[in-house]
Specification:
The protein is built from 16 helices and 14 strands. It is of the alpha/beta class. One of its GO terms (molecular function) is RNA helicase activity.
Amino acid sequence: MHQQFEEKIQSSGFSELTPIQKAVYEPLKDGRSIDALAPTGTGKTLAFTWPLLENVTPDDGEQLLVLAPSQELAMQTTHVMREWASTLGLKVLSLTGGANIKNQLDRLKKHPEVLVGTPGRVVELINNNKLKLGRLRTLVLDEADELLRDDTAKQVDEIWDAIDNSDVQVALFGATEVDEKIAAGVFDREFERIDQRDVPMPTKIEHEFWLTATDQRNKRLRQLAAQKKMQAMVFFNTTKQLKMTANFLAHEHIGMATLVRGDSSSTRERAMRSFKNGDAKFLLTTDVGARGLDIPDLPVVINFDLPRDGETYTHRSGRTGRMGKNGLVITFGNDHDARDLKRMVAVDIEVVKGRPRLLENDSAILRNSRAGGNNKPSSRPSSGKGKAATKVAQPKKNVTVKTDDSDKPSTSAKKSTKFVKPVRKEQEVQSREDRFAKEKKAKRKHRKDKGKPKKA
């Protein structure tokens, strides 16, 4: 490893690399094309950042391109890579949809060595002759299984055609397998498989299923909001239900933010910043937020809606318990939903029928979570210490749940719920009784003052 990287790692207090970071270092440094698999939260971003940056030559044009399926993941990857690239005097540019394209074009003129982007924006720049990839040496697909699906796969194919160099190194990274036939068809090569999914990580994620009627799920969130140090990502299958819940929480004066397709890049970035800073208790999102996002020390993930398949459950769950930390995954639903979920994933799930322990304000997960604020996103290697390793949730093959609607991008998504300003931290969440009493008092005062002249 580069001496400056080693010094930075030691000064940062890292004691040991994760299994995936160790396994891919030499193959990537040697320029081999790989298909790397590892559980979520095991430091895959740094796994490809360290060896690939060492192969980049300063001031020699665009040499490394990293593709990500979402704006949030692309921005997060940019942040991580920029921190390490600056050590070697390298420039990193983010190319994402929804961001100001004029600023991106101005920075492209400086020929940054590293590009991180979403397929849609990269294709747009290529088609407009604004981006040339003739000097590219390496292409990385982060969350490759997602990128090599449907319309996104066609965009990746367009980018590969524009590269037009069979010697370019290709690295696929993800937590779930890529269809090998699709990958081979796009890139016309065989990949070296590096599978670290069965390597135990020192982590402990608990999985609970709370038996909850559909009309009681919003009230469950209100109960959870009253718990000290509570913060959770809440996943929905549809934008429609997300909006309804957002309106409910806003009426209850509960701080939250929303992350959905259709919002501008600045709106989504503002929502993420609010949640990471601890200003919002909940981040309401669809599966656009299920992949790759790193919220340090996030204690809880909530499935408001039952995931459609085991793979989705695995990626949602991966937002908590990252890099060896503890975490809790809660799923709402009925008995039938509980049976479906147990068929989808190979992990122990506790079905909670009475009052959950988390609502007793004595949960170790919340006691040990961050107090909020000043937490920078990271993809740090694990210390290798902590509690005994537990089995990571893995999807069972060919098991899905039928749903009536989906969250495909649509015109309705463009009218998505915006960020809702939270109450001040020193304010307590009002109980229903206090709120009703206050409203009743205001009505009495209104009747009493009705007809009286207003004071000057």
